[in-house]
Amino acid sequence: MSPEEHYRRLERMYRAAPCNAYYTPEITIGEGTAEVVLPVRPDLYHAAGAVHGSAYFRAMDDAAFFAAASLVRDVFVLTTAFHVHFLRPVTEGVLRARGRVVHRSRRLLIAEAEVTDARGRTVGRGTGTFMPGTTPLTEAIGYV
Predict the structure, then answer these.
(1) DSSP strand E in the chain: where?
(2) CA 27 to CA 128: how far, in whole Å?
(3) Where in the chain are the domains?
(4) Which of 74, 92, 83 has its CA nearest to residue 124?
(5) pLDDT, tens digit, for every residue of 44-98?
(6) How many CB atoms lie within 10 A of CB 23?
(7) pLDDT tens string 90-139
(8) Facing residues of 14 across strands?
(9) Model's pTM, two decimal places?
(10) Where is 45: in which H helix or E strand?
(11) Domain 3-141: top CATH class
């Protein structure tokens, strides 16, 4: 299968995940890269009226995860750790997270992610470590 077909299948798998019915993100995947766009809504706010950090994390983890997954063609990738820096609050627009793989070995991938607001300002940064799991990429998990 071509790399482009792999990316399309990963994108369909992502969109089919049940948790995305709530967050309603969009994703674009390339070779060692991914971009996630998450709409900002008041139901994602914390008590002080800005987007909760869990939404920042969600966007960054997804972008970094799928950047790593783009390079693994046979099994589901697992997040083993993720470190986040929250830089500024967001109250409107979208969160746009861009992930890219910065290191790859046989058993470990490291990807960085940056999340920006609708004005293009960096609002968060993260670094994740990922590893190939044992779950095959099949129709059973939405890889179609």
Answers:
(1) 26-30, 33-39, 75-86, 94-104, 109-116, 122-136
(2) 18
(3) 3-141
(4) 83
(5) 999 999 999 999 999 999 999 999 999 999 999 999 999 999 999 999 999 999 9
(6) 17
(7) 999 999 999 999 999 999 999 999 999 999 999 999 999 999 999 999 99
(8) none
(9) 0.95
(10) none
(11) alpha beta
